[in-house]
Amino acid sequence: MFRFGLKEHGTDIKTEMIAGMSTFLAMLYIVPVNASILSAAGMPFDALVTATALMTIIATLINAFWSNTPVAMSVGMGLNIFFAFSMVKGMGMTWQSALGVQVVSSALYLLISLTPLRSWIVRAIPLDIKRAISAAIGAFIALIGFEELHIIVNSQSTLVTLGDLKSPQVLLGLFGMVLGIFLLLKKVRAAFIISMLSTAALAWIFHLTPLPDGLVSMPASIAPIFAKMDIPSVLTLSAIPVILTFLVTDIFDTLGTLTGLGLRAGFFRHTHSPELEKSIQADAVGTFLSGFFGVTSTTPFVENAAGIEAGGRTGLTAVVVAVLFLLPLFFLPVFKAIPAFAIYPVLILIGAMMFSELKGINYDDPAILYSTFFMVLGMPLSYSITDGLLMGALVYVIVRAFQGKFLENKGMVFLAAVGILLFFVL
């Protein structure tokens, strides 16, 4: 029988259960949010709710029993935005082809997680570049939130401008955003889901959107999206930059989140930590399976900090989270009735949280300064994580070349940037 080693980790069953419930409340928002984002790509909302909850359960259980850490995993923010708004809406890919990119990328990720390549990538990419990538994706996510809330709209004369702030939907969206900020400041663990449901309740009361058809229902089938990936269509040179973007973003997102959580909990003290290695491998397996289930990559959630701060120290915390995520499977009518303007304020707040990574960057280094600037502005302005990542990488290499340092220590960054440029042009 599997032992979590509660005594060895200085915890007990009650503490682990409280920690699991804390993490669950903090992460619950991902079910309606991810379903709403991916449905923008033309995928069925009902099936996405089920698939998101199932992949959260599967990936979290894999990590619980493989790494024995209190880390729950679910479909990550960032790549789902990239999937729906850049790949499908921007590039014109079908969602089946986009899922093909997800599966190919995750297969590479799984391979890397099982070989020394992972350590090589960690060493080759400067820490400040990883922080800049996170902040840039945060800016892109926030832009999507502003756009979908119609706070920012198209303009023929100025490209973008403020929308109609007198619109009831916009006002309710702003209310949800302000409420979310207030709850976060008060350290309410269920801040995002409370903000969404409160905004939705006001919309129902004022008849701005229909009431839920009911409270509970049987889980929707995932048959419409299960194993629907179109892999042959993405086995082309032109798809390589997109695949690499998925791969690099997923690796950095996982490493960054796990490192931060590990510092809080007292594990993952170095890049060769057995717990870190196993958590990365668990995430890689979950990410690979997610494409088959019709969703984008899984990743450890920063919201695990809620459970860690509540005392969670072992995989039992993650098991509790996984069991609790059975509940969203039966609340589809409520999730379907939550309007978009109640959901997208969460994206803005998540974007702001990711943007805070900029505070740890060393701007005295010109290569870091300029690459960060081009990356953070490039992603939202080009409406593409791939293009923003490419701009930042190229600027980094150019400045290092001017300094005569592009082969010092991080020479692999130079080679990677040249490779990405060639693939992008081809």
Task: Tag the structure with descriptive keywords.
426 residues, 18 helices, 4 strands, mainly alpha, globular, two-stranded antiparallel sheet, 64% helix
Characterise the protein shown here:
The protein has helices at residues 13-27, 30-39, 45-67, 79-88, 95-113, 117-124, 127-148, 168-185, 191-205, 240-265, 274-292, 304-309, 315-324, 332-337, 340-355, 366-382, 385-403, 411-425; strands at residues 73-75, 152-155, 159-162, 298-300. 64% of the residues lie in helices and 3% in strands. The strands form two sheets. It has a two-stranded antiparallel sheet with strand order 1-4. A two-stranded antiparallel sheet has the order 2-3. The protein has two domains: 13-215 and 231-350, no CATH class; 362-426, no CATH class. With 426 residues, the chain is mainly alpha-helical. Helix 2 (30-39) runs parallel beside helix 4 and helix 17 crosses helix 18. The protein is globular.
